[in-house]
């Protein structure tokens, strides 16, 4: 039994001090995953990897009746928390109060590109539809797209083989691409 699983068991049994022990054990891995995801975000992003980890941590430990079965379940919950934070951040930036979708552009950086926030929201909407059709494929996308895990890492978290994860990833990418295309219209 890994240290993470042992600590998660203690948390599940109501040991209040166990949550304090968990963060130092998982922090570096969560930070690495957040940094990987944040590297693909648009320039001028106000949310930093450390802040993403901290916000995800607060969501995770702030849940009532939290019980994680094992290390994989914990990291899947972490991926979901990070995804929700990134989506909420993208939605917040699109509100009128925050510029209504207008983005600050430095004169030196002018180039035509797809807005990452729009893409993030489109992926999130399509992902919710995929979750209805196939929850495991949707979880794989969350781990890969929103957390930045490799196929191998995501397969381990989902407790599936790497070849199956690769097949699920190929299917999910095609499905999401078609779903996003249909959302945007002709």
The main sheet comes to:
none
Q: What are the low-pLDDT stretches, counting only 5+ consecutive residues below 50?
A: 105-114
- Judged by helices, strands and strand pairing, the structural class is mainly alpha
Helix and strand element order: HHHHHHHH
What count of helical segments does DSSP give? 8
Could you tell me the mean pLDDT?
78
Strand content: under 5%
Please give the share of residues in helix.
55-70%
Please report the total strand number as a whole number.
0
End-to-end gap: 53 Å
Shape: globular
User: Taking Cα atoms only, what radius of gyration do you get, to the nearest Å?
Assistant: 18 Å
What this model shows, in words?
This protein is 70% helix and 0% strand. With 186 residues, the protein is mainly alpha-helical. It contains 8 helices and no strands. The chain is globular. Helix 4 (71-94) crosses helix 5 (116-133) and helix 5 (116-133) runs antiparallel to helix 6 (135-146).
Write the layout of secondary structure elements.
Layout: H1 3-12, H2 18-39, H3 49-61, H4 71-94, H5 116-133, H6 135-146, H7 151-158, H8 162-184
Helix pairs in contact: 1-2, 2-3, 3-4, 4-5, 4-6, 5-6, 5-8, 6-7, 6-8, 7-8
List keywords for this structure.
single chain, 186 residues, mainly alpha
Structure summarized in a few sentences:
By secondary structure, this protein is mainly alpha-helical.
């Amino acid at each position: 039994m890994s240290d993470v699983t042992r600590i998660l068991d203690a948390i599940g049994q109501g040991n209040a001090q166990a949550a304090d022990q968990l963060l130092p054990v998982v922090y570096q891995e969560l930070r690495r995953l957040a940094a990987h995801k944040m590297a693909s975000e648009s320039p001028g992003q106000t949310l930093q990897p450390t802040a993403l980890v901290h916000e995800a941590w607060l969501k995770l430990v702030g849940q009532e009746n939290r019980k994680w079965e094992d290390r994989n379940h914990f990291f899947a919950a972490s991926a979901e928390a990070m995804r929700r934070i990134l989506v909420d951040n993208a939605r917040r930036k699109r509100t009128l109060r925050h510029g209504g979708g207008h983005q600050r552009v430095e004169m030196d950086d002018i180039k035509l590109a797809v807005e990452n926030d729009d893409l993030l929201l489109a992926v999130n909407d399509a992902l919710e539809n995929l979750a209805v059709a196939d929850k495991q494929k949707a979880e794989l996308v969350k781990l890969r797209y929103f957390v930045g895990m490799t196929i191998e890492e995501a397969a381990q978290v989902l407790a599936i083989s790497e070849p199956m994860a690769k097949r699920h990833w190929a299917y999910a990418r095609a499905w999401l691409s078609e779903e996003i295309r249909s959302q945007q219209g002709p």
